[in-house]
Design a protein that fits this description.
Layout: H1 3-19, E1 22-26, H2 32-44, E2 48-51, H3 54-63, E3 77-81, H4 86-99, E4 104-110, E5 113-116, H5 117-124, H6 129-162, H7 169-178
Antiparallel strand pairs: 1-3, 1-4, 2-3, 4-5
Helix pairs in contact: 1-3, 4-5
Length: 186
């Protein structure tokens, strides 16, 4: 293989190492304006989108133990190297693909495992990290707040009893019967 091809495969390998995740897309038929918009959208999520030769990507994938990735490399393939929030990047690509039929997610790598298009679709349906964290915190806090409320109930009852000197709870009930608005037998 020519030295420039070896160098290109090494650069792709470095991107695989640095990102830890990648998403393969088929972009056949996507015009340049849509491609520019796609790249800009991915860049906003700290990802990078490259069109690479399948052969060079296959070489880099094999060198990094991702042999299963080679089966997904057919046709025009674009590679998204995800940033820290690869799931957010995947959601962005999936949303873009819903609006643009020419773009399809072929599969990818996340958490050092090759994933199929179906697995990537399932992952993209997960709620964002912030939502999951909020739900988790809510689940932790809910029993604690109820516990605090239960602990505070005797104190609240005591304050109510002490707050009405000379009045017993029964006296309040008797006054309600004798009031002019509560006449029986009308």
């Amino acid at each position: 293989m020519r030295p420039e091809k070896v160098f290109a495969a090494q650069q792709i390998g470095k991107l695989i190492e640095e990102s830890g995740s990648l998403i393969l897309t088929s972009f056949g038929g996507l015009d340049s304006a849509k491609m520019t918009r796609l790249r800009r959208t991915i860049r906003e999520k700290a990802g990078r989108y490259f069109v690479v030769k399948n052969r060079l990507l296959a070489i880099a994938a094999r060198e990094h133990g991702l042999d299963g990735l080679c089966a997904l490399l057919k046709g025009q393939v674009g590679v998204v190297f995800g940033g820290d929030d690869w799931l957010g990047t995947l959601k962005t690509i999936t949303d873009f693909a819903k609006q643009n039929e020419e773009l399809k997610v072929l599969g990818g790598v996340c958490e050092s495992k090759v994933r199929t298009a179906q697995e990537m679709a399932l992952l993209s349906a997960l709620p964002p990290r912030e939502v999951v964290a909020g739900q988790f915190i809510g689940t932790l806090v809910s029993p604690l707040s109820e516990f605090v409320q239960v602990l505070g109930e005797p104190v609240r009852s005591l304050v109510l009893v002490l707050g009405s000197p000379g009045r017993s709870p029964r006296a309040g009930a008797q006054e309600g019967k004798d009031s002019p608005g509560s006449q029986e037998g009308n």
